[in-house]
Amino acid sequence: MKNILKSILAVWVGLGLAVPGSWAAEAKELSLDDLGFQADQMKSDPAMQARLHKRSRMLKTHQILGLVTAVPILATVMTAPEFEGGNPADVESETDTHKMLGIASGAMYLTTAGFALAAPEGETAGRNKGLTKLHKALAWVHFPAMVAAPILGYQAYKQAEKGESIHGSAKYHREVAGVAAGSYLAAMLVMVFNF
């Protein structure tokens, strides 16, 4: 009971309220031990502070680059040429634009992912909840798709360049790229808008 009164008194004093006379003497006796903190818990750990600072900076960079990377990803999807039985020479400039945007998107994507993957782990490593857990789960969808999409796109272009119809796994380039872009944007929106 005495500890509860001391805690109430600490809040009362912290709010700048006048302390009743009978409690005034007890206010000076209040210590961190009374509040449940041990002296060794109050010592700072410079190495941990440095790790947390580095983690914070790297994840903030990950967030900013993630937003910026969405632009070339969307532009890549919007500039996708139509090869449906056509000649790739007819859409050469469109194909070059799409290819260059794809390269830029891939480079920015890998840079963005690198900051998240290289960030030091926090104290709660492996205990992700809620939106962070969903964000990381979506990464397991968009990462393989972002790796596969350019490979399939290259195969599709080479087949169309030879005058062949797009066949084999290359015919799924559009769908894989759509999954990559969609899951990437979903992962971004989950963190930006905090649904």
What would you note in describing this structure?
The protein is an all-alpha fold and 195 residues long. The protein has two domains: 41 residues, no CATH class; 148 residues, no CATH class. The model has no long low-confidence stretch (mean pLDDT 83).
Task: Sum this structure up briefly.
The chain has 6 helices and no strands. The protein is mainly α and 195 residues long.
Helix-strand layout with pairing:
Elements: H1 2-14, H2 21-27, H3 46-78, H4 92-118, H5 130-161, H6 173-193
Essential attributes:
single chain; mainly alpha; 6 helices
- What is the H-and-E element order? HHHHHH
Distance, first to last CA = 43 Å
Taken together, the total number of domains comes to 2
Characterize the largest beta sheet: strand count, sense, and whether it forms a barrel: none
Q: Which regions are unreliable across 5 or more consecutive residues at pLDDT < 50?
A: none
Give the overall silhouette: rod-shaped
Q: How many individual β-strands? A: 0
State mean pLDDT (0 to 100 scale).
83
Total helices: the number is: 6
The share of residues in helices is 55-70%
**Gyration radius over CA:** 28 Å
Structural class category: mainly alpha
- In terms of DSSP E residues, the strand content is under 5%
